[in-house]
Amino acid sequence: MPKINIGLSDEQREGVINFLNQDLADAYVLLVKTKKYHWDVIGPQFRTLHELWEEHYEALTETIDEIAERIRTLGGYPVGTMEGFLEIATLQEHAGEIPSATGMVAQLVEDHEKVVRNLREHINGCAEEFHDQGTADFLTELMEEHEEIAWMLRSFIEGQAIEPSGQQIETQGKTPIGV
Ligand SMILES: [Fe+2]
């Protein structure tokens, strides 16, 4: 088998592949949740959310393929079983729950934000610890996509006194940034 000679040691590639497999697992959990909410959502926002989530799960399907192929590019194998994904994912499925439309949005905001935080850590790890600028760059673009989705979803629930955790809170007195 030819040795991979792209300027990264086996240890560096392994470290990056571990990050990527976790990101892959989380993307899969997010894909399944987004699809389930696309099916289950009810209420006056049905059409908007149903269609928005279709766009999101289509984007996630592409993302998943890109992450898996990046893993192969680095000489690794992507986790490819539901069992394996659930074992290493950082997102929770919350099986058996059907939240309200607002609750679904809040749940997905929380999940996309968690993915952004994970990616931010992985980008730093790829660049600083493992010297893999290529993967850092790839994950940076991915992080920006999740940031944008989180913003769009957050915009649905802002002003309804509901935080991403889904809990009712007092928003009076919150200082907006940039105003
Ligand atoms: Fe559909």
Mean pLDDT: 92
CATH architecture: Up-down Bundle
Total number of distinct structural domains: 1
Largest sheet: none
What is the overall shape? elongated
Radius of gyration: 18 Å
Small-molecule components bound = fe (ii) ion
Can you tell me the CATH class?
A: Mainly Alpha
Q: Number of DSSP strands?
A: 0
Distance between the termini: 59 Å
Portion in beta strands: under 5%
Please provide a written account of the structure.
The chain is mainly α. It has a single domain, classed as Ferritin. Helix content is 67%, strand content 0%. It has five helices and no strands. The termini are far apart.
What labels describe this entry?
179 residues, mainly alpha, Ferritin, 67% helix, binds fe (ii) ion, Ferritin-like_SF, Ferritin/DPS domain-containing protein, ferric iron binding, Ferritin_DPS_dom
